[in-house]
Every structure is written in structure tokens, then in C-alpha cells.
Amino acid sequence: MITKDNVITYSYKGLAALLYLIFGKKEKIKELFVEEDVFEGSLETNSSRLKKASDALADLKKIPFRYKYRDINGKIKTGTFEAYNIEQAKNYLKNEGYNLISVEAKKKSSFDIVLTSPINTGEMSFALTQISTYLKAGISLIDAYRILAKQAVKPEVKKIYNMIVYDLLSGESLSDALAKQPKIFPKLLTNMVKSAELTGDLPAILDDMAAYYTSIDKTKKELKSAMTYPTIVFIMAIAVIVFVLRYVVPQYVEMFSSWSDQLPKITVMTISFSNFLEANLLEMIVILIMFLLLYIYLFRNVKSFRKMMQYFYLKLPVIKNIIMYSEVSMFSKTFASLLNHGVFITDSMDVLIKVSDNEIYKKIIENTVKNLNKGGKISEAFKDNPYIPIVAYEMIVTGESTGKLGTMMEKVADYYQSLYQNSINQVKSLVEPILIVFLTFTVGIIIISIIIPMFEMYQVIA
Question: Can you say how many angstroms the Cα of residue 33 is from the centroid of all Cα atoms in its chain?
Fold first, then answer.
């Protein structure tokens, strides 16, 4: 006899069988029906089976596959893709219009070297703007990411967007799809998209995030641009000095050999330094490279070392302001964006801790979270803190008292963003003449140390 419980039981079994079928576990389907008839068994028993099936599927991991395909111009290209099994990989790639030649599991010995994220902040900003524009034009989210995947030039970027399309087709939300690639998509973006999915206003959030990452990209480019010229001048200055000492000065050493007891001290020092470079130049270069590599490794991987160096940088007169303005601006901009889109403050702090790479400011945010958990205010963690400007603290206090914290944080971000840009320009304007004076002075000293004994020799000869 068919009862309500039997129908529900059958539905549970059918859903479990469908899950197994989708994820390539056909052998598991038999286990659902061999023990008893379709309409036998309690509701609790079959609910347990469905949970067991779901848990088993949750433990499944995607397998990397390498595929070859022929593009519209007839050229053979390769790519990588991750799926639960090879059938799913083939079906997805064929459905997406790839003219497949072969698909095979990626060998464990093969690897792809990726030194940095294949999508930088500028590219991410542009991609978010594109997605928002497509959605406003009525194009579905899946089709929007399909377009990004097709127009991607770099294989690793194409793979990233293909994985998002694959997850969306599998019924995942966009936030879940982004969360599966944490090394590519920041947690801030994932949380903001999740918030947008709840409110139903995804295009607006994507526009805000695009503006946010545009601002971040602009800040990075300004810093890079400001430091490029001084760095080149400094390297060229060192190269010129080393060249003169290593190859020019030695040519005069033999000329001055008969005058060794009468040479000026400045000439003796120059010759001694030249001899030292001639004997140890290669070793010095190797030691310098090893020192730089060791520093980079320790800074990236040893928290205590990184924290110590960041404390040191925050003590330097000019560098201190650049770091402080950058961190406060970044914190305020991110916090304002989260608050204005209805993300809980405690969740915001969790995101902000991961946004900053500075251990000192991470500690400040952690203290803020502790204060919030105790029922305190955000401003209490910033009060009398030497690394938080007094203006920023007072504006946060005002925002808390007026209930417009998000708006005040935006103003803080804009204010310190302008101070950051001014500091960068000041450093650029100061460093350039200092380096030029350093080069001129050093080369001048070397030339003088050679010319003085030559004049003395000429006077004796004359």
C-alpha cells in the first residue's frame, strides 16, 4: 500500500540515487534498493541513507585534468580543468564549445609554476565591472562568466573562470564558487557577494567592489611608479661607482706605485677600496643576493621576523607616515564597504584581519573584535594607539555616536588616501635629488683622489 511516508521515502531514495548518478558513483545506487522494496523501510532509515550519500559526496575531491583542443584558427592549445571524474570534464568542455582532442588526468609529477595570482586587482576590477554590466543587460550569471572564460588569454585565467561556470552549473552559488578558490578571490569579495545574494542586488555590489579594487590598484601603481625612478637611479649609481672603482682606478695604481709613500690619504683609501672590490666583487654579489632572498623568505614565512621589521619601518620618519596612511585608508575603505552593505561588524573584523598584511594592524583589529565581544565599542581599541592617527580615532567616535559609522569611515578613507598620495609624492621629490647628490659626491671623491696625485706628479716633473 502506498502511503505518505512511502512516497517521501521513495523521494529520498530517488534524490540520493540522482546525487550518486551525477557524481559518477553508479555502483552506490544498487545499495539503495537491493535490501528492500522501493516502498519498504522507515522514513528515518532512508533519511539516514540520504545523509550518508550526501556526506560521501561532500568528501569527494575534484581531480585535475589536462586537455588539448583546437581553437577557431585551427591551432592546438592545452589547458587544465578540475572535475569529479573524466566524464564530467569531457561533458563540460564539449558543452562549452571546445573542439576536444584529448582529456586525461593530470600526472602527479606535472606542476604549474605560478609565482603570483594570475588575476591582479586591476584585472579583477575590470572583470567585476563586466559581470555587473552583463547582468544589467539581462545576461545570466553563468553566461556572463562563460564570456569571461572565452575572452581570457592566459590559460590559468581561463581555468579560473571555467571552474566558476562549472560550479554554477552544479547548483553552487557564486559566493560558494568564489570561496573554492581562496588564493584567487579575496575573502572580502566572497563575503560581499554572499551579502548581495541575500539582498538580491548583486550588480550594485559588484560595481562597488569594482570601484574598491580600482582604488586599490591605483594606490599600488602610484607607489610602484613613485619608487621605480629612484630605484633605477640608485642601482645605476651603485653600478657606476663599482665600475669606476673596479675598472678605472686600477689603471692608475701602477702609475702611483713609485709615489706610494707620498700619496694623499683619500687616494690611498680609494685604491684600497678598489683592490678590495677587485678581489671580492663576486663574493659580495653572491652574499647580497643571498641576504635579499633570506630576508624575503623570513618576511613572508616567519611571523616574528615580519612583525619586528614592520615595527622598525613604523619608526622611520617618512616611511612611518606612508605605512600608517595606507593601512588606515585600506581599513576604513574596506570597513565602510562592509558596513554600508549590511555585513555584521564581527564578520567585518574577520575579513579585515585577512585584508591587512601588517601584523601590528592585525593585532589592533583583533583587539577590536575582543572589545566587541565584551560589548565595547570599536573606538576603544583605537584610543591612544600610536599607530592610529588621532583624527581617524575622533571620526570613528563621531560615527559611533551618530549611528553613521559607515559614512564616517568613508570620509576617513578618502582623507587618508589623499594624505597617502601626498606622502608618496613627497618621498619621490626628496629621494631623486638625494640620490643624484650621492652619485655626484661619490664619483667626485673618486675623481679627486686620482687627480690630486696626478697634479703633484706633473709639478715635480715640470
Answer: 50
The class (CATH top level) of 257-462 is mainly alpha
Q: Which overall architecture, per CATH, does domain 121-216 show?
A: Up-down Bundle (1.20)
Model pTM? 0.63
**Among 270, 280, 22, CA closest to 169:** 22
Angstrom distance (rounded) from CA 274 to CA 244: 9
Please provide the size of the chain in residues: 462
Paired with 67 in beta bridges are 79, 103
Report how far residue 179's alpha carbon sits from residue 184's, in angstroms, rounded to the nearest whole number: 9
Q: Which of 393, 409, 355, 442 is nearest to 121 (CA)?
A: 355
In the chain, DSSP finds a helix count (H) and a strand count (E) of 19, 3
Is 25 within 8 Å of 9 (Cβ atoms)?
A: no
Q: How many CB atoms lie within 10 A of CB 158?
A: 20
pLDDT tens-digit series, residues 135-168? 999 999 999 998 998 888 888 888 889 889 988 8
Would you say the C-alpha torsion 271, 276, 279, 281 has a positive or negative sign?
negative
Quick one: cell of 214? 580600482
The model's pLDDT over 298-313, given as tens digits with 9 standing for 90+, comes to 998 898 999 999 999 9
Q: Where are the domains of the chain?
A: 4-58, 63-105, 121-216, 257-462
